[in-house]
Each structure stands twice: as C-alpha cells, then as structure tokens.
Amino acid sequence: MTEDYTRVAAADELEPGNGMGVVVDGIEVALFNVDGEFHAMSNRCPHQRAPLCKVGEKKINGEKCWNENRGGFTDQPAVTCPWHLWEIGLETGEHEASGKKIGVFDVKVEDGDVLVAI
Ligand code: FES
Predict the structure, then answer these.
(1) How does DSSP assign the chain, residue by residue?
(2) CATH: 2.102.10.10, 2.60.40.10, 1.10.1060.10, 3.40.50.150. Which one for 2-117?
(3) Which of 28, 41, 48, 88 maximizes ligand 1 atoms within 8 Å of its Cβ, making it the mutation to test the pocket?
C-alpha cells in the first residue's frame, strides 16, 4: 500500500552501480541501483558500522565494492563494505561468514520515484 512507503529519491538520481544514503523516519538507509533494480538496507555495516551507501564512490576501495561474482553469494546481488570488504547480500542483509544481518527494506518505483517501506 502506497501509504506505507516513503519517497526517497527520483529513480534517475541513482545510476546503476551506485549507492546513496537516505534517512527515513530517522533510520539511515542505503539505497542501491543494481542494473535498474533498486534495493534498500540499513546503511550501517554489521561489522563496524561503515556507511554502506559509499560503495559507489571511488574512494575507499570503491572499485572493489560492487560485485556480482565475488564471495559466496550466487543467489542474490551483494555489496562489499568499503571498509573491510565484508560482502552483504542485498536481499537478505546477511554476511554469510559471520551470520550477522542488517535490515532490508521493500523498495518500489512508481512514476519515476523510488519508494521505501520501513
Ligand atoms: S565495517 Fe564493514 S566490513 Fe568492517
């Protein structure tokens, strides 16, 4: 239901292969565009709370941070934390090796807007 979702960005603000940070109801959310499919999760890595939205930036290991084939995830896209390269599944919010998880949120695009449900 639309009323459960909050508009966080225009879809064309976030290019494929990039992430951005937004705040919804006081919660830091990392928004990612994976080949045109949007994903949202907590913006804080389950290891030492690095801001996961920074994966698309060239600084801090940026070139290593997007991955489709690195690590153990074969069933879902993943991002790699810019600080110590933990890989986090975008659909489950899980880091497989440690079993630690962060929250993931429903995302949809309507009329060119990206909406996130917290
Ligand atoms: S803070 Fe993310 S891997 Fe260490």
Answers:
(1) -GGGEEEEEEGGGS-TTEEEEEEETTEEEEEEEETTEEEEEESB-TTT--BGGGGGSSTTTHHHHEESSSTT-SSS-EEE-TTT--EEETTT-B-TTT--B--EEEEEEETTEEEEE-
(2) 2.102.10.10
(3) 48
Q: Which atom of ligand 1 is nearest to the CA of 50?
A: 1
Closest ligand 1 atom to residue 85 Cα is 3
Sequence ranges of the domains in the chain: 2-117
User: Which residue from 28, 81, 95 has its CB within 8 A of the most atoms of ligand 1, so it is best to mutate?
Assistant: 81
Per-residue model confidence as pLDDT tens digits over 39-96: 999 999 999 999 998 875 543 333 444 444 444 556 778 888 888 888 888 899 999 8
